[in-house]
Prior knowledge:
Radius of gyration: 19 Å
Protein name: DUF4428 domain-containing protein
Number of domains: 2
Strand content: 25-35%
Shape: globular
Distance between the termini: 56 Å
Order of helices and strands: EEHHEEEHEEEEH
Amino acid sequence: xxxxxxxxxxxxxxxxxxxxxxxxxxxxxxxxxxxxxxxxxxxxxxxxxxxxxxxxxxxxxxxxxxxxxxxxxxxxxxxxxxxxxxxxxxxxxxxxxxxxxxxxxxxxxxxxxxxxxxxxxxxxxxxxxxxxxxxxxxxxxxxxxxxxxxxxxxxxxxxxxxxxxxxxxxxxxxxxxxx
Length: 179
């Protein structure tokens, strides 16, 4: 029977793959920083380094995910915070998750860029989608579709729906804090 690379506990049905083997769910929660990062390409040494990292690097207050919209944005209603996990799949670079209190959110809007191009001898409507989150001291962009794709595609429609959900949720939070 396989065992966890970190705690050596026997692995049951739920296990998570990394470069050198598998880890149990408890250890995965620690090394993935509360399920915000994947460990698929990390070695055992890198995972042990994450666990051994000093606690002062962790946020002073914990972030408890109460709601989320896919892997784009997490909400902590208990502590009134949002988290932009900066998942490598969407940011194309390794960034740490960013946590902001609800009170610093000024606005949130959906931005769709559209163009018309000839693709395979057909004129097509192409588009990209991002959500722009304006905070008190900075602006953050959440890219849902960074490259232009066909606006009639299911992927585009799904991402537009997700973007609308993000905007609606964040604007609802903003109104709740203002009251």
